[in-house]
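Deliverable D4.2, example record:
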Amino acid sequence: MKKVGFFRSIQLKFIIIYILLLVIAVQVIGSYVARELEAELLDNFKEATNDRIDLLSYNVEQAFNKQRTDDPEEPTLQEEIQEITIDVDRTGAMIQVMNNQGRVLGTNDYTNTQIIGKKITEDTVQRAIKFNTSIDNTSLNVNTGERVLVRVEPVVDDNNNVQGVIYLETSLESVYGQLQKINEIFLKGSVIALIVSVLLGILVARAITKPILEMRQQAQTMARGDFSQKVEVYGTDEISQLAVTFNHLNDRLKHYMGQIENEQRKLESVLENMTDGVIATDSKGEITLINEAAGRLFNENPMHLLNKDLLALLELEERVEDIIQLQQSGTLVLDYSREEETHYVRANFSTLYDDSSEQKATGIITVLSDVTEEEKIEQERREFVSNVSHELRTPLTTLRSYLEALTDGAWEDPEIAPKFLEVIQNETERMIRMVNSLLQLSKIDSKEQPLMREVVDFPKFFHHIIDRFEMNVKDGNITFKRVIPDESYFVYIDKDKMTQVLDNIISNAVKYSPDGGRITCRVQKDIRQIIVSIQDKGIGIEYEKLDKIFDRFYRVDKARTRQLGGTGLGLAITRELVESHYGRIWANSKEGKGTTIHFTLPLNNKRRRQQ
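Output generated by the structure prediction step:
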């Protein structure tokens, strides 16, 4: 198992959690303190501003209510208001005093004295005059970009009539500057606390995770089969109790693993020496054990079949719904034959039950035996008996029918009796030919018919065979084309048996060729053999049936074959005879275009003659 890096370890998780908790706490406390401090500073600032406003309001109110004379030496209202405005506040706040018409009577802004006498239409001023209400808000000065406190205070007479308003605008940047300095101090303290917390978190995380890491290392050691080491116990807390339990588990596993290994060795020894395949599954049907013999039956590495479904492996999904039903199926002979090969396997099933309950199945034991050869022999026997019975039944039925007719009086009819006797004779001769063919095949199979071989010039020998057929063809309605080289090709053959081979092939070509048809006989030399081909222009054979024409009792056109006196054994005998000469035979055909039969014969050499 790969070692867990620090950035993926539980230590880092502990540290991150510790830091996150600290950061959240600092943020909550900092936010609360900053908000409360800001509110306190703003309240103090507003209170100081209100004091100045109250003082200014008193002086302005006295000026408004003062009785004026025509004495030119006496200051006017505007001059008195301007003097009061300049004297009352020198803290940097901008102050304007306006009458109840909104015209400026005085300002403390030396740079903006030209505003005196002008009317102010600002909304806050007009509302204060109209509604006799104080207005207090915070806004942003569009010229300086600073946060400012705006205070509009109406000045009233004894009858509570608005005589004018005081407009004060003062910067709040000093307040927020203090807040910023306090926040910077708080931030520096938080960073220092965070660094200390990280160091403490690392120490705490290591102390917590050290026993866990040791148990992890011990678990990896146990997974490798080493149960000799123990985990150190550091105290009596929960992790220490876990370490004690872990050590106890280690001892128990060591004991049980020893028992399992002994049983495993015994089982492996038995399975390796068995010739039959053995497969064990769990209750779900997944393969948990399989020996080499079972793997060979399926041409698979046994290790690759582990955890696969048994029903899928045996191709029984459609026949068996539940794995437990296999035992009820008894002994099964499974057909795994493919186009190229035949393969039969006999399977016996046994159910495994839980020790605590015989009703609860825990798995299946399957014993597999290769019975391919047995099934081949049995299948060939059944097919042979079936084919022989079928082939003999037809002529025997015909004989019985005609004999019954003769017995019933047809023998007295001079026209019918000879025809019936001719049919009986033909069917009898066909049965004799069939029996002789069967006897010949039986002798070939049992090697009771030795070949009388001799060195033969095959092209010359082939010409003699074709000459004989040309003489026997009626009225020349079939023509023969010879593509045979003039040079000599010597082969080591039994002339009688090879004559039978060529007779069978050419006879079939003649039978299935239409009137006026042509049969092409060809011989060509390969490297160490000759290839003989007989081609007709007959009815042809379907592609799917080409591989079957050399089987015993197989007929392409059964009705026509029987009509022509065929037994269905000619090409089967031909194949056996060609193969006994170390040759190979095959066919090419197109339906409606004709058929070509090819076979090979080894060229003569000293080694071949000695075989």
